[in-house]
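Q: What does the assembled structure look like for these inputs?
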Amino acid sequence: MEDGGGPAGQAPAPPPPLVLVEMQRGALRITACDRPALDQGLAPGLTLADARARIPGLVSVEADPEADRRQIERLAAFCDRFTPLVALDPPHGLMLDVTGCAHLFGGEAALIALIGRRLSAGGLAHRACIAGTPEAAHALARFTQGGIVPPGGDEAATRTLPLAALRLPPETALALSRAGLKTLADLAERPSAALSARFGEGLAARLRRTLGREDIRITPLRPPPDCVVERHFAEPLLAMESLEAVVVRLVEEAARVLEQRGEGGRTFEFSIFRSDGAVRRIRVETGRPSRDAGAVLRLYRERLDTLADPLDPGFGFDAVRLAVPVCEALNTHQPQLDGRAVEEEAVADLVDRLVARFGRDRVLRFIGQDTHDPRREARMIPATSPPGGVRWPAPQPHDPPTRPLQLFDPPQPIETLAEVPDGPPLRFRWRRVLHEIARAEGPERIAPEWWRDGPAEPARDYYRIEDAQGRRFWVFRAGFYEAESAPPRWYLHGLFA
Amino acid sequence: MMSAAHTLADLRRSLAEAALRSAPAARGRVSFGPAGLDEVLGGGLVRAALHEVYAPGSPDIAAATGFAVGLAIRAAGRRPILWVRQDYLDSETGALHPPGLSELGLDPARVLLVRARDAEGVLRAGAEAARCGALGAALIEPWGDPRLFDLTATRRLALAAEGSGVATLLLRASASQSPSAARTRWLVQALPSRALEANAPGDPAFRIRLLRQRGGLSECEWRVEWSRDRQCFAERPGFAERPGYPERPALPDKPDQTRHSPDVAPLPRPLVSLPADGQVAAGEAGPRRRAG
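A:
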């Protein structure tokens, strides 16, 4: 399928020809023309100066490939409602694998007509073709009027195409045309071994695929999910309540499918297709494989509640799809009566609900790291990820806490007064409050990890100190006292309970 | 889906859930350890309730947090603890440091942390947690004085806690006091610890004041220490201050409620060596204590 850009609006007076230009090889050249421009003999590749000389009233706009890409991706998302397998076919094509999908829309002819109507309604000029292989469809959409190739008719349909349909590198195309080969039929007559020997395996393979002798799969934009259930509506759905009812049915259906397979999903993705082409995707995640329809629905509602930009029916919803991208084995198990498993499950459910509301990176667990650097000793990972990390060092019995409860990142600079070399200061000022130190312990020297911090990072001498009011702090001196350099700086790194 | 096996499984599950709800662990009271405190509270803190912990000023936030961690450890048993924290706290009071939790006796692996952007998120996550009966304790820590945490919101939290049996601690370290539906309200300040060898700071010590208690005795104050090895609070007997320590002017002293408490009840916890005499007062620094 192919669609070319350009608005199809009809103004009373013929609009001036419009071209898109881009700086290429030192000159502004045309990269795309609209219909009137084409009719007046302009073509991509022409310099803007030449075009202006021919048509003074020419309107030129700078090309914006980024916007083109975004537009084609929006279209891809729109086409997602026809088949889960949609691939981009750059620069401005889309490839849909409609194998086994067409009958849902009343057959291939009806499908192609439906897509055509929707694209035209959106003001897009396009051409579409359904053929046996992606390459054949690509070539036919660009070099014929498109349409539907009956099964097995690919070779007949493509034989008459010019060699340019093969998307050959310029030197190959030149060599072939010098040899007097003009159409695919000319090439198809030749023994492919000779072609491969002269032009490489690529040409022969492309030829086989375009002629429909060999099929390949497209690489879809979104990997096909393990499990998909969907509903298309004859009329756009306007009420949110009806949408909710459909979602309930889809979740129950997916649960049944998963149960038959003995699997559960970790991620459930609801795609809601609006009739104006917008697609909303709502993902919920669970901490462990699940096919509990009630739980998935709760998470869905939770997620819906927190959407920054709420679901808006607009002119109605066309279709809803529930995809389970990855399934994992989930065997039915006998719940135990001891309550422990129920407890764990309840906590996992709570985590899922919190993840749905706050996001994966906001519901966390701590894991220990194998390092002595207090800044890296602990890491936070999403609570839904598998456990890992090293064991936390067990505290020494009878020792008071040697690590603070709260740690500042970065450490807070403090102003020390009455310092004694190689000892804690007698008082310090932090956040404009002066603290008299009453008790202290240290130093505990923690060497920097030179393989991470670099050689310039100074060693830190940590002190546990307590001020006269009983507040306990963890302070450190970065570096040592040296005769000629400035005295080392002090920092507050943490607070003890 | 509606097979007989399913019905049976559902039945079993609902039985187990019912058992979970009515389990003795889910109800009852959380003892502090010292008999004096527990007595005033009628045997300890009510587990299925909302409790508030305040600090008089920002320098005491760490102490209030430590006290709340102690309560959570006492209340949670072996169950997980969910901690809801507002992001802003990280820059104001420092991020939670898991080794520090471990040093207080709380295995960081048992802690679930929810980081909320704003007070509304804290309240929502806190309410979810307070409703989940499988948690041991929920620590809810908003920053400052959000208007959201009013009487209605705290009453909701309190009701959720009563329904689920989760000890719900609202840590309002940086807030001014406002009306709430909490069962108890505590004001926690740091207290100079008992020095160890070479004048090193000792176990965490707090001056805790019970500001309010629903249907119970009003204000009284204790000086307690948290002992990680025993996982309990212990009253500071005698309070031997270092000479020359200035008394803090922040709280006018009430008639001293300190009572001698010979029997502190440690939580059952394997793998902890307890001193044979069981006296916290005698539990001076052990032989393995290294001098700094």
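Helices of chain B lie at 4-22, 35-40, 61-76, 88-93, 98-104, 119-131, 151-164.
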